[in-house]
Amino acid sequence: MISTHILDTNLGKPAAHVEVKLFHAETHELIATATTNQDGRVSDFGIKEFAEGAYQLEFEIAPYFSSLKIKTFFPRVCIQFFIEDINQHYHIPLLISPFAYSTYRGS
After folding, report:
1. For 64-88, how does the pLDDT look when each residue is reduced to its tens digit (9 = 90+)?
2. Using CA of residue 27, residue 28, residue 29, residue 32, what is the dihedral sign?
């Protein structure tokens, strides 16, 4: 399973209503689209089966910052990662601010 969450470190709050797209990284084939909930989370993209390989999450953060009337340097954040074991849970958090972002492999 693949999940994610977004924390707006500028405000110290979850980033709700952010569109997140999941792609096969090598072919850029769109697999699923989801929107973060009030807690800034996408707990499940609704995909039942995964294959080993490279994937990419694309976070559309420009509309989020625009809704807050905050300018951002990064309109979209793309994170590529590799699935080695399809039986593991892959959680990819994103920490954002108007002029920076970071990520890590969560649990």
Report:
1. 999 999 999 999 999 999 999 999 9
2. positive
